[in-house]
Every structure is written in structure tokens, then in C-alpha cells.
Amino acid sequence: MKIFYYILVIHVATGGCWNSINPESNVMDERPNKMIINGVEADVKDYPYQVALFSTNQFVCGAIIIADQFIITAAHCFASNNTCDYMVKAGVSRIDECGQQLGVAKLLMHEKYLGDKHNYDIGIMKVDKPFKFGDGVQKIKLPDNSVCAKAGDVVLVTGFGRTERNKKKEKERNMKLYVLKSPLATREKCMTNKNEIIAEPHICLDHSDGYGICLGDSGGPMVIDGYLIGIATRIQKACGADKPDVFTSVMYFLGWIYNTISNN
User: Fold this and answer.
1) Which residues belong to any copy of the Peptidase S1 domain (predicted)?
2) pLDDT, average across residues 95-110
3) What are the boundaries of each domain within the chain?
4) I need a labelling partner for 127 at 20 to 30 A (CA). Which of 14, 100, 175, 197 fits?
């Protein structure tokens, strides 16, 4: 997987848990992204919370089922303000499969997300009918205080993003779901990127040897022990480069997530 987006940096203490904090930060110049580099093909039955988000019939991002009628993704994946433009596919290992296709009834972007600043890159969509849970379609568990992810812990990342960062193949769309296992980065490793400001509500995915997220992986999940702890938000221009990919911390926004669901 590889992800192409503005680079924001994160906080994963070398020894402590990541659920600390207070955020505010700016970030690097980059554009929205979409994919997983050097992962392996995956079956959605093993990652049934992963869905594909479409806008005006074009695949735009990954997203995650968090309740029977709600998905969560990155705010920058809200490509339109019109709910009629969106479609969600669940239960698919390829984005050209039918699966369960649902419309979107409500767009619930974090009120502090400004687009030009890369904080608060989180949003929820309410689909127009409940998901039919079964093989390949299930909600993921949200973290609680018992979940502690620290630098070096191995996490799972899934997505339908590109699998190569090759200019000649740049326009080729990956259709398949891929999974990548990778450790969390230390705060120090996150600081290796020039011009970045470390922001507490983010988590860094460490990688080397060409592994990472890329165009199309935005909005997808970072999971540990079956719990959703991160949402793909920003990465390096060169997908799979030896620098951390950035995910929004789910624990940091847990209160906002529960309030948004209960109020809608």
C-alpha cells in the first residue's frame, strides 16, 4: 500500500501508550493519496470492516464500518458536499465487485477540519440503510483504555490503494484489497522528516524497504488486536519511501466519534 497525502506527524512515545494529548499543528505540502505498497493480497472476510468509498462513481478512499449504519474515514475523502454523489461498497475484495452497495444519508466531517491545515482529518458518514452483517461485512471494535499501542508494536493496515509507485503505471488502478503488517514508529523516527511538526493526535507507521501506504489507501484502518487505532491520513510523496506514514489517532477522537454517532 502506499498513500499520497499531506504529511502530518504523530506521536507514539517510545515506551508509552499513544492515547495522550492535545493537538495543533501544520503540515507538509502534499496531495491526497490512495494505496498499499508491497503488501499481500487479502480476503475481505479476514478484514470485514474494510469498505470502499466512491464519489461520482469513482473510487476515492477506504473507510471502516464502526456501527450498523456508520463508517469512518479521513475528512479529506469528502470529495463532495452532496450525499447523492457517494456510494459505499462493503464485503468486496475487489472494488469492481458488487458486494453490498449503500448510499450515504449524512456527511459528518469534524468541525475543526480546515483542509489547508491538516489536523482533525477525520469524518463519519451515515449510510442510508443498515449494513447486513455476515461473512465479509462486520463492524470493527473501537479502542478503550485497555488498548495500548507503543513504538515497535506490529499493526495491520489494509486498503485498495496503488501497489506500485511507478510513473509509467501511475494511472493504473489497483482493484484488489491488500494488507500490510508493519511496526509503529517512534516519535524520534517521525521527527526525521524535514519541516514536519509532530502533532499528538497522530500515529506513525514505520516502514522500510519499499513498504507502506500509497494513493487510494487514505481513510483506511490501522488495527491492533482487532481494535481500530488509526485512520490513514498523510504520507510521503514517494510511496514506500523510508519515512513514516501518518494516521489519525482514533483514541484521541473517541469522544467525538461516540457523540457524533449518538446524535445522528
Assistant:
1) 36-262
2) 97
3) 35-262
4) 175
